[in-house]
Amino acid sequence: MPNTISSTPLHSSASLLDELTWRGLLHQTTSPQLAAHLNSGVRAGYAGFDPTADSLTIGNFISIKLLAHLQRAGHRPIVVSGGGTGLIGDPSGKSAERQLLTREVVDHNVSRQRAIFERFLDFDGPRGAVIRNNADWLGSMSYLEMLRDVGKHFSVNQMIARDSVASRLEGREQGISYTEFSYMILQAYDFLHLFRADGCTIQMGGSDQFGNIVSGIDLIRRMQHGESFGFTSPLVTTSDGQKIGKTEKGAIWLSADRTSPYRFYQYWLNTSDADAVKFLRWFTFLDADTIGSLEQSLATDPSKREAQKTIAAEMTRQTHGDTEYQRAKATSEALFSGDAQSLDAEQINEIAGDLPSSGVAASALSSGIAVLDFITGTTIAASKREAREFLQNGAVSVNGVKVGADFTITSAHLLAGGVILLRRGKKAYHAVRVEQG
pTM for the complete prediction? Predict the structure, then answer.
């Protein structure tokens, strides 16, 4: 699939920090000289990604977007895959020791994540993005070399004072191992290596990485007498304080085999009014005027949900391509309009996989089941009294078609894939899967 983010500079180096600021993506910088540094030539900047899984979540997308903004401002982005540090585990933001992964699992995760970066960054031309695996340099360095040449530049007093360490030391039951304690030394060395090998002078990441970034800058100053910089994005949360991308069904991933394009599309489509505008700023590349117009639409006619539809379209296209976006959109519209019969088995199963569900024996449908009994005990109606009330009020649909209390469900109502879709009102859905036997 072709890259969906153009490498053509869309804003100058001087305005990069302003661009990130109005989007709400700039939290801290390490020096007031960062803007001048960006404006004085083509710079290389990096962000690191932890290979704890074979995919990345939409929370990780913020760091990818920082790299994309850097590239669009005329600079060169570097992705650092933690093939080495992933064997250790970053204690930042963690309340307990991570489970160590094997080298084979880490290598597999690194290779699988590569395809994600290739979707969002341009790897061609003089400013083309590059991917570096820190196992390539950390794995060839001996323990004695690391202690003698690098470790001597770190103060244990300062390391203990870091939030990521101090919070773990305060809880006796948690603690922190020497392995995780050493993580900040390895990450600082990453920055030093990239400074030497790629002329990389900028590191970026989430706000929980600020201490690690400062350590790298200090190590470059001590060992290379060089100048380097860093900046971070804020912790992105929903309006109610929840972590982005965490749902009842788990994380929202950037790979189709973990989160289907339909479910991905639905996640953004269901964005609350309170979050829609800031999500447009954070996650899309739409300009200020376009987002301002969508904000106005949200304020004057929120029922149109133009902001939510736009972010769902933009994010699904960026992540899965236009074909999958169109398919996810068609699936969603068919379900809402009552045209579920037009969907194929794969689309039906995508819908059913994203809904509360239950099962019914195929033999029970052969003679038919009264809809009152069929919906009782599902998430549509908890009791027969509720079921009767909802049916009398015309609030219940079967496969998108409203039904009354005298309706009978039979095997003729099975959709492709052996599923019956129930709906109450506009938002309460339930899937019933027909089981053989």
Answer: 0.85
